[in-house]
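Lecture 7 notes: from sequence to structure.
We start with the chain below.
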Amino acid sequence: MFQFGELLALCIGLVSLVYLLAHRRRIAAEPALHPFVVPFLLMLAAWIATVLEGVHFESGDIPWLVFGQESLSVARRSITSELLNLAEHAAYAAGAVGLLVVLWRNRRAVRKAPS
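Predicted structure tokens for the same chain:
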């Protein structure tokens, strides 16, 4: 199951990815933006894992989507859901650490720059 907000975050992330791909030459020309690409892609991977975790495979191979907390299938989790949950949280953590490193490096570079 997943919330509407999680699906919305994924859609915004995918639209942002399309924008990045459409303007990759401009981004390549601006070296200050390069370090932000990997943390963004990690966050996008987490959003994808979040939504995929909400896709349940019941009888057969037909996926069905569950919105909201009131689903009867809340207690039933497959190994796929658990692995996607692990991938989601690992990607969120890696993206956050990556963003922290980028911001920390930029902060130090600004402090060391001559005025």
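Points to note: The chain has one domain: 4-112. Residues 4-112 form one domain.
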